[in-house]
User: Fold these one by one.
Assistant:
Number 1:
Amino acid sequence: MKKIVFIGAGSMAEAMIGGWVKKECVQANKIYVTNRSDYTRLMYLKDTYGVQVLEKLADIEDADLLILAVKPKDAVAAMQSIAPYIGDHTAILSVLAGISIKTIEKGLYARPIARVMPNTSATIGMSASGIAFNTRVSAQQKKLYLQMLSAIGLVVEVEEDKLHAVTALSGSGPAYIYYLIEAFEKVGTEIGLPKEVVRQLMIQTLAGSASMLQSIDEEPNALRRKVTSPGGTTEAGIRALEAHHFNETISACIKSAEQRSRELAKGV
Ligand SMILES: NC(=O)C1=CN([C@@H]2O[C@H](COP(=O)(O)OP(=O)(O)OC[C@H]3O[C@@H](n4cnc5c(N)ncnc54)[C@H](O)[C@@H]3O)[C@@H](O)[C@H]2O)C=CC1
Ligand SMILES: O=C(O)[C@@H]1CCC=N1
């Protein structure tokens, strides 16, 4: 691909650009960025990653790929602004939460469209992404998208409707984990450790547990049992989690996010 244009230059665009440039998967000078009005932000991306700033919307005409990366509420306006200039051969990759392939086809006409739900860990090549395609995406294009997404982490192909679940779990997931670390830091300081020490200990604990799950062929439940001594500290902690409805809390979190993704699809 000679020209890839990001429509929207926020957190998710930066995470993908950062990941691709670092992994040398896409040459920075083939990536163009544009947004609604914040030119300083575009210059920051240019200076940091070596990407190009799109001079005017008409310059999308010869783009091979447009990446839709605005907020879902701005999607219709963004599509209306680019529709007059979009070239016949241009394919679309959307990272918009909720917004369906059908809506994108309505806004940008019949063309190859892929919807991906990455997460911000793309920055360090550790995204967990789900992807779905419309029928116009060729086998060769699919292969290319899967390669591009693999360069910034794990990618799993799913039916389009399942992207709501992917969004709720791994799209939003990093925020839940950061929230968890915030909670550990709060309580850790309450019971007498400096915040920095709590952070170090819990990041390592999180990374260690994730690596155990990746490298050892055992169920989470079995690994948990190995930590939990009868009558010990873990058992006391887990009992408190159960008493405070941990499973219901997680279930409410994921179902609310999934529901919100479905609402975004309806423009709510
Ligand atoms: N932030 C995240 O962790 C993830 C976000 N997403 C999706 O990525 C999309 C972008 O999210 P963020 O980067 O977090 O948002 P953001 O608010 O950081 O960035 C949005 C960008 O779109 C630009 N924009 C708004 N209207 C525009 C228009 N009409 N034309 C051109 N540019 C326009 C804004 O100026 C801004 O640069 C959303 O649809 C979100 O659902 C998907 C996965 C994870
Ligand atoms: O919060 C959001 O709507 C977006 C989608 C997944 C992560 N951030």
Note: Residues 7-13, 34-36, 38, 69-72, 74, 77-78, 81, 95-97, 117-120, 171 surround NAI (ligand 1) (CB under 6 Å).
Number 2:
Amino acid sequence: MTTISPVKTVKESKPKEQNSPKKSVYLTKQLNLWYGDKHALKNIDLDIKEHEVTAIIGPSGCGKSTYIKTLNRMVELVPSVKTSGEILYRERNIFDANYGVEELRTKVGMVFQKPNPFPKSIYDNVAYGPRIHGIKNKKILDEIVEKSLRGAAIWDEVKDRLNENAYSISGGQQQRICIARALAIEPDVILMDEPTSALDPISTLKIEELVQELKKDYSIIIVTHNMQQAARISDKTAFFLNGEVIEYDDTDVIFSNPSDKRTEDYISGRFG
Ligand SMILES: Nc1ncnc2c1ncn2[C@@H]1O[C@H](COP(=O)(O)OP(=O)(O)OP(=O)(O)O)[C@@H](O)[C@H]1O
């Protein structure tokens, strides 16, 4: 069988496993989701750990985006959506009636497929979330903006152009501004929906390196069509097919010794 070896171009080896077991950041139990009659997610069980990069892979239409948009309840913007089951974020069910969606979204940032900065200055893009949360003090905002841009590995490139429109920089830089904008609210989790699919290879590599850095402080869940990318940057991989999780394991295992024939067929390029 042809397999993709999990070559670590970004870092040569994974950090040593800690002695204590990692905590769950998201525990999904028997999640089902329907768009009207379309049963898009079927009995999903996934235990996603903190300070790991979890990759969601699978062919087009298998439910990857739907799943990560369920994690921050963005999917509820589609009126026909119905769900059953539970998603525990830090042990609280996000579907509980008294769980405010705004509260959840202060903990969970999201980065989309196409860089989507606001038509504002670089500074105002990053300061946007903190301002919404009531921070007005210029010195504090300056500090947050610098820290977030440094965290997104783009400070040096934009520090002299903070007042320029975010559209004036390259797509790869815009994507890092979007990551900085997500970091500015000090999230716990960052959801990434194919964040490099619109980027050139060098910008892609920068984002991949950044993801490796960010997992020290955040938990990252990334949807990707790019299996080499999943193999390079993730700790765990979930393979979705037709709305089901077929296999979820250490990335090394998924790419070198999957237990399900369908996973093997997918990663060796036989379909999808
Ligand atoms: N708003 C919607 N209304 C109805 N059906 C939808 C909606 N969004 C997605 N679907 C359907 O749900 C299924 C899962 O879609 P989803 O976008 O989650 O897949 P995906 O794995 O992310 O696909 P891709 O890799 O192409 O982005 C598909 O059959 C899709 O057509």
Note: The radius of gyration is 19 Å.
Number 3:
Amino acid sequence: MRAPRTRRSDPLAAAPQGRPVRRSRLVPLLSRSAPTYLCLIGLWVLLRGALLATGLLLQLVFDTLSGTGRAGMSAWSLIALVAAAEAAKVAVWYGVILSRVEPHFTYRIRAALQVNALGAILRRPAGRALDRTGGDAVSRFGEDTDEVGVFAIWSASNLARLIIAVGALIIMLGIDAVVTLGLVVPVVVMVLASRALARPLREYQHAGRRAASEVSSVVGEAVGGVQAIKVGRAEERFVARLRDANAVRLRFAIREVLLTTVQTSLFNGTAALGTGFVLLLAAASMRGGDFTVGDLALFVFYIQFITEAVTALGMFFARYQKAELSMRRVAELADDESAVIARTETYLRSEPPRPAPPGDRPAPLRLLQAHGLTARYPGTSRGIRDIDLHLPAGTVTVVTGRIGSGKSTLLQVLLGLLPAERGTVLWNGAPVDDPGTFLIPPRSSFVPQVPRLFSGTIRENILLGASSSPAEVAEAVRLAVLEDDIAGLDKGLDTVIGPRGLRLSGGQMQRIAAARMAVRRTDLMVFDDLSNALDVTTELRLWDRLLDDDGATILAVSHRRSILRRADQIVVLVEGETVAVGTLEELLEDCAEMRHLWAADESVPGDAHAGRVEHD
Ligand SMILES: Nc1ncnc2c1ncn2[C@@H]1O[C@H](COP(=O)(O)OP(=O)(O)OP(=O)(O)O)[C@@H](O)[C@H]1O
């Protein structure tokens, strides 16, 4: 199959920072959950609609009490009805909306965004999985998805507020149009004023979010590099960076809070002014006898709907923009924003289904080939060009070259961990469409230069979910030359490593990664420069054991004589291109670069024509 092309540039990521968000991402997200969203709005409309009815009942109560009653019921019966309506409201509010529908809806939106964003990251070539700092990504996964989830329920509740306010206005207009207008005019003024404040508020929110990400990044770097900071005596520099980043965040946070407060005060003040107008105008109408005590009670009761709706309307723009901004930041985690808002099953109330058991073991490797592999790091001319590989099953191929000659890049492009610009990978003669998902266990495994271990026991780190037997784990430990280290630990394979456990040496980490590879019994084993962390003797023992293991096909980056001697073929790279391929004897005869590299590695004495080196 063809190696993947360079990934599509992300139109979102390319958008200049600080620009207002134009295309809505929230609307498609919410429309995917339309039934639940509409159901939530409907519940709120019902709930607040009951309050409208309560207002009408109050009107009847007061008209009955003041002797202008039209209800045909006693005041006490009406009061009992009001109390029943209130009780029903509280039951629906707490029993249905707050305890069930809202939490489920908000967490489902958050979980779907997180699952989709994580899936999009994991689908990228591994070497480019996350093109931002861990702290920044965590902030997007946490705060930004939270913002979107909260907006979904807040907006449903407040859209219902607006609908009910319209209903209240219609009822009030039917009673007295002039008094009602006393409320409406300040509302219009407020909406216009809120529009004027929206733009600067949006800019402060945007800048505030960026500043918060920067703070998270600095904290993340500091926490991840405590040792490097201490060794380099860089504490003050980091504290200064944190102080600067926090100062920027504080500046924008204060501006945002200030502007939001001004906006809220404006709404509240305007609403209070509207209340005053109602009272003044109602007094005049009451003198004329057109406006009853019950009408006044209804107006005073309904004022809350108008003021709440006015406040909600004003906040709506700000919160909508904030949530859109958060959606954009979550979408930036993926190459394709539609992947982030795709419908995804979330399992908030039940366990997810277990993954399907792996199918039959694929046909064993006979031949792995690569033709014309080419890749460049973005914005540079560095990388690899037109590299061919030919790896028959059961052979050892060593890629060697000077520092920076492209050895690691070649392995990563071959395995699909970095995207290729050009080139083809063939497994048993058949093209591989996506090496990143094909060259994995049980076909291929990889020990990178800097292995990644996780907090947990050594056994968990070796297995990483594989279901190998204890005997298979023990064999993997032996192949990886780890048995003496394990024997020296009280809890053996069950020793916890990581931040809360044992600190391992670089060599131990590398050998645990090698055991992780060995336990998977893959056809192809790929190693990126074990010499980085292993001493000569240990590396020699590891190669001996792996090569004694029948049938392994090995591709290794190395400059060590121990493995160069054992190689069936050596590929020599210079500046990202192959300059020679052959056995050690052939290359020492014909290739000046190989002679230079051989002379440079004097860690293992001996000559090129020696057979197996004796050791142990
Ligand atoms: N992420 C990156 N961005 C830009 N350039 C890079 C990146 N990674 C590597 N390079 C450059 O690409 C070239 C090949 O790097 P690569 O790591 O493949 O070399 P190498 O032969 O494996 O080196 P080493 O022996 O140090 O492991 C080098 O010039 C390196 O500086």
Note: The chain has three domains: 25-340, 362-443+523-616, 452-521.
